[in-house]
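Before the break, one more example. Copy the sequence into your notebook; we will annotate it together after we see the structure.
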Amino acid sequence: MGAQGDRIFAAIAEKGFPDPWAAFGEHLSWEAAYAVQLKAAIDAARKNPGAEAADEVRVLFDRKQTNLEEAARLLAQVTAEYDSNGMWALLDERAARLDIEDVSERWAIGLVAHPFPIALRSLQFNWTYMKEHGVRAFYEMTARYVSDLTANNRRWRSAFETEQRTGVLDRITTVESDLASEEAPMHCDICKKTITALLYLDG
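Here is what the structure looks like once it is written out:
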């Protein structure tokens, strides 16, 4: 293990994850958390039909939507800021210097053993994408992803409202929409760690 991983982790230990990326990552972790809560609330509304149970589901859909909108707002703000201050060029230069193998070894130390280390693979994909396409392009892709998650939330809510109106259960949309939401932290809470490695590459 070389110097880059140790230097990045020393900076994290001293300063923590930088905002707005820390906040952005938290929003996408909540995307999955809200999905877990929604599944339970929808199940409860099916077992005990009534306005109160249905309204609890709607409140969670509202919170999930607001959370995604805030994530999109943060990403748009930082993109504009980096456009104006030239930060993308600095990040591209650091991405070019990043030793993915070195840094991956350090990130892997705290992981619980699993045959497919999804968090580590996501980090490696992100850094490779940044090297090949540029850091701004990575976040353009991320913005599209957040937009797709928002559309997924609208689809899930529409399916729930149709179910409430018709009484016909739609379990498939819940399965599909929940899976999309549960995947979000492995992309976008991970991406706060991805960019932190670049921001702290030189300590």
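The mean pLDDT is 92. The chain has one domain: 3-199. Try to locate both features in your own notes.
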